[in-house]
């Protein structure tokens, strides 16, 4: 059994992407999907803290890049939601039937076609809401003077925006929705904490991450049982 952090790659029908691996080589494995665009930078450290905490529960995980995200060789402007979903599905097939989706915000838009054992979503966001957030950001401050197609420093194609507008998280089968206690929308559980995806700079919340790792662990155990 291996634990800790390892660098790895995975292949999908459109190429190869990088990913981080955490935890043991056996048992259930979590596929973590960060939010799209700038929120990914704000939550990456937080997501890694959750995944490291899951190692203490004996749960493995991966944090992959998808086409047009992270260190991907696909430029952001060339990214398509359909390609990102294809890459997620190919990765889940490679990892096997005991893989579980863990998503933060718009990351919940990526796993909808994958045959996973269950879906755990933190503050899931629809594609329509994401596009509206991008447009509000572009309409304020320095972003208002940005070139067409640029949103908070991200160059996004019209095709990507069109795909996002109609995209929604998958909410059937085994799935669990968790929200912060300041969010009044329906959920299976709430926890105290600040929405790190709204911060102007990347940040972390170790206490919240541990609570969420405990929640994920108990939920996976109930699915496995």
Sequence of strands across the biggest β-sheet: 1-2-4-3-5-6-9-10
Secondary-structure element order, N to C = EEEHEHEEHEEHEEH
Overall pLDDT confidence:
93
Proportion of residues in extended strands: 15-25%
> Which parts are unreliable, with pLDDT below 50 for 5 consecutive residues or more?
none
Share of helical residues: 25-40%
What is the total tally of β strands? 10
Shape, principal axes of CA atoms: globular
Distance between the termini: 22 Å
Radius of gyration from CA coordinates = 17 Å
User: How many helices in DSSP terms?
Assistant: 5
Largest sheet: 8 strands, mixed
**Category from helices, strands and their pairing:** alpha/beta
Report on this model:
- The chain is of the alpha/beta class and 225 residues long.
- It has five helices and ten strands, in the order βββαβαββαββαββα.
- The protein has helices at residues 38-55, 81-95, 127-138, 158-165, 206-224; strands spanning 5-12, 15-22, 29-33, 60-64, 99-104, 118-122, 150-151, 154-155, 175-180, 189-191.
- The strands form two sheets. It has an eight-stranded mixed β-sheet, with helices on both faces. A two-stranded antiparallel ribbon has the order 7-8.
- β1 (5-12) and β2 (15-22) form a beta hairpin.
- The longest helix is centred in the C-terminal third of the chain and has 19 residues, at 206-224.
- The two termini are 22 Å apart.
